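Supplementary Methods S3. Input chains for the assembly prediction are listed below.
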Amino acid sequence: MSIDTDTARRVAKLARIKVEDDALPALAGEFNAILGFIEQLNEVDVEGIEPMTSVTPMRLKRREDVVTDGGYQEKVLANAPDAREGFFAVPKVVE
Amino acid sequence: MSELTKLTIAEARDKLRSGDVTSTELTQACLDEIEKADALGAFVHKTPEIALKQAAAADARIQGGAENPMCGIPLGIKDLFCTQGVPSQAASNILDGFKPEYESTVTTQLWQAGSVMLGKLNMDEFAMGSSNETSTYGNAVNPWKVDDRALTPGGSSGGSASAVAADLCLAATGTDTGGSIRQPAAFTGITGLKPTYGRVSRWGIIAFASSLDQAGPMTKSVRDAAIMLGAMAGHDPKDSTSADLPVPDFEAAITGDIRGKKIGIPKEYRIDGTPAEIEKLWAEGAEMLRDAGAEIVDISLPHTKYALPTYYVIAPAEASSNLARYDGVRFGRRAKLAQGDGITEMYEKTRAEGFGAEVQRRVMIGTYVLSAGFYDAYYNRARKVRALIKRDFDQAFEAGVDAILTPATPSAAFGLGEMTDADPVQMYLNDVFTVTVNLAGLPGISVPTGLDAKGLPLGLQLIGRPWEEGDLLNIAGSLETAAGFVAKPGRWW
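Predicted structure tokens for the full assembly:
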């Protein structure tokens, strides 16, 4: 399957990465090269094979569902590009 | 003084204990070498004040009769590890200015053991690359040089490899998602170990592909890899995929006796176009292990050729999820916005400015293979093939194979910039021998065993059974002894 510039534009939008229109054809070309390489997987007989979910078979640990961490708002906000009055600040969202 | 920085961890440990040298002297020697080595682009954030403070504390501990073999050992830390109060930006512009408020589990354990942080090391952006050319800091350069070209130290742990090979530090941390410890180790003539998935905590290491990422040591010897792994490994409640298994004494496992060990040679790793000198190196490695008493057997890992395409579905898929957090809100940089820009424009501009081309490409490929309508065709199919790749290894080990010997890389180090115009897939082929190991969650080690015709280092890879790093290190130790690789890069920097 081949990716055209419309698909490339849609993928960039889904990934929330701004790509200028004039860069889309080259991007679509790169996608096609990589996906062409991935197409080889269609040769493999995967009938009856379960998709791998965990590389080492192990049961994940359980613990009590209680708060074990927190209480340091300042540290959480310390690296924010814009933090005000104890919150992360973002551009105005009006729906 | 510079002779001090050439020491292995094992040698330094002995000298520190006997009082022949102090950690402060060792650390200062490394700091002096680092100051002279900016041309290598290895250290991108230097932390001399922290280093000298930690060294003084280590000296006090050693005087008090310490104990831990990593105490007083000066290390370089890959920029992917979060280090409290010290820039940690995964070599990405999007994390410019980020100073974590916390310390990764691996580095916490190393500092608790008494090790010393010299600074942060260059790498490919978000560990995506095989040449250290995608870094926001600029290229790391290989200390090995045979003509007027500057060579890549490999990637993604290129700064780590360059720093260890150039004796700027005694050892360094690396991380390996598809070969990012083993390929740069091979390109620079050092030892690099990727442990079993789950052996080392991933907590506080900036995530690339969570089901493949694993941190490990990059060192000057196999023994050093064993010593350093001991300090890095262990269960961590903060990483639910870290294994709750005891950490054995890996160094004690290096006995030099590999008689009766069965070493598999997988026929699928004979790939068209592999240079004759790599084939020769591989055959010689098998011969060395045979001479040491191991049994060499031919094995088959039939799904090998599908490992790279599988990886280039799974790794970008996981990366697209992991990197969704870089949105200009919580950390790092935010793009300058135009009048009237809303939150979507903020995300899109921040990510377009903050991520380099390779990272953008992989995030978008990952987005595509996970998108509605393609999830089954790409992502689920890749996970099924991954299960088959793992089954190949399981069957080899069930048949009694103790370790598998392969080349580490399909070539020696190439020139920086030589791959610029190549298709991205050409660069991906660097990981053809290493990527299977990540997909199957196995331990793998790259050991330098020879030089190519031009005089550049080449490495072989040994792949071990899960959780059997001790046995793997023992076999690697025998290979190292037999190969007797002692070449060092000539100093030009």
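Residues 375-398 of chain B form the longest helix (24 residues). Chain B touches chain A through 74 residues (CB under 8 Å).
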